């Protein structure tokens, strides 16, 4: 099962993406420049803030903030898809460039963000590419320590949290003594259902609740019986005794409104598009959602 994507304003994520079968996805500096140019062009339009990054040979680490909520999936789809297409063209090959979907690990603020940023920057040292993270061009380490970077990175939040550049430089060196994290996860990451997350127990409980609601909604949208719109109409009329013409009409009597809500809830449960439901009862899409949700909350659509 694919991990559920968290769509909430202001959430922070540690994002990783690996090459298919762990193959190299960056063979030249041109490849890395292409990837960073795409980040620069795509992320602002999706309201994604890039806090820290490191491009390795066969994978990437990105520390991001999804400012508006819901911007991360389309941003990553454009980034990964566009880069893969261009990379295949340069290499004169076809097929998958990246392996499984990117991983997006929710991260709580403050110490977890600082720790995550240091971990990301030290990847090049752990891999033996350089002796000092500041010597690796394809990361944001220098932007944090000396303010020099050819790439646009939002350093203000993490530098404020750790007390400035000097403190960050010390933490960056100290963090090299920490035990390595498991695979692509940040240190102290723990699993929450299908997700991995870094943060307090309270934060993980919040994620658990959000994922559970999304899981319930996905079950709600499946089509267990495969009922058609006509069969749903028959069921609603049978249960309520209210005719189809009245349900589609302008009257707002309580019994008619309840029958209207029942139709919306049953149709959504069968996976029928909201636009199609709205056309059936001559209402707007938001009205359909409101009607269905009101009945679901009351537990009357079973």
Overview of the structural elements:
This protein is α+β, with helices and mostly antiparallel strands. It folds into two domains: 11-217, Alpha-Beta Plaits (2-Layer Sandwich), CATH 3.30.70; 229-298, no CATH class. It is built from 13 helices and six strands. It has helices at 29-42, 72-91, 111-121, 123-126, 141-145, 156-162, 165-174, 201-221, 229-240, 244-248, 254-269, 274-281, 285-298, and strands at 11-18, 48-55, 59-66, 103-107, 190-192, 195-197. Helix 11 (254-269) packs antiparallel against helix 12 (274-281). The longest helix is centred in the last third of the chain and has 21 residues, at 201-221. Mean pLDDT is 81; it is low at 210-225.
Considering the protein shown, what is the CATH homologous superfamily of the largest domain?
Answer: Transposase IS200-like
Distance between the termini: 27 Å
Helix content: 40-55%
DSSP E strands, number: 6
Detail the poorly predicted runs.
Answer: 210-225
* Count of alpha/pi helices: 13
Estimate nothing, just give the exact number of structural domains. Answer: 2
Global structural class:
alpha+beta
Give the strand content.
Answer: 5-15%
H-E string: EHEEHEHHHHHEEHHHHHH
- CATH class categorisation of the largest domain: Alpha Beta
> Could you describe the largest sheet, including whether it forms a barrel?
4 strands, antiparallel
Outline:
elongated
CATH architecture of the largest domain: 2-Layer Sandwich
CATH topology of the largest domain: Alpha-Beta Plaits
Q: How confident overall, as mean pLDDT?
A: 81
């Amino acid at each position: 099962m694919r991990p559920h994507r968290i769509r909430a304003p202001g959430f922070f994520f540690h994002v990783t993406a690996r090459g298919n079968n762990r193959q190299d996805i960056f063979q030249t500096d041109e490849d890395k420049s292409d990837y960073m140019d795409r980040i620069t062009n795509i992320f602002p339009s999706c309201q994604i803030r890039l806090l820290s990054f490191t491009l390795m040979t066969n994978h990437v680490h990105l520390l991001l903030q999804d400012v508006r909520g819901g911007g991360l999936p389309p941003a990553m789809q454009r980034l990964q898809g566009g880069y893969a297409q261009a990379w295949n063209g340069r290499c004169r090959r076809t097929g998958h460039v990246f392996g499984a979907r990117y991983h997006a690990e929710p991260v709580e603020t403050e110490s977890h963000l600082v720790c995550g940023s240091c971990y990301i920057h030290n990847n090049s040292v752990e891999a033996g590419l350089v002796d000092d993270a500041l010597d690796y061009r394809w990361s944001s380490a220098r932007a944090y320590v000396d303010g020099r970077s050819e790439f646009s990175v939002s350093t203000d939040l993490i530098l404020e949290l750790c007390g400035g550049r000097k403190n960050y430089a010390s933490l960056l060196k100290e963090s090299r003594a920490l035990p390595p994290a498991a695979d692509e996860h940040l240190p102290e990451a723990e699993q929450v259902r299908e997700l991995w997350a870094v943060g307090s127990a309270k934060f993980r409980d919040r994620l658990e609740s959000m994922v559970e609601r999304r899981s319930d909604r996905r079950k709600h949208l499946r089509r267990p019986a495969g009922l058609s719109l006509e069969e749903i109409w028959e069921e609603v009329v049978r249960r309520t005794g209210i005719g189809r013409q009245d349900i589609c009409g302008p009257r707002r009597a309580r019994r008619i409104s309840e029958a209207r809500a029942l139709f919306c809830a049953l149709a959504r449960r069968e996976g029928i598009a909201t636009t199609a439901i709205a056309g059936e009862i001559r209402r707007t899409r938001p009205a359909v959602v409101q009607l269905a949700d009101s009945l679901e909350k009351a537990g009357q659509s079973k």
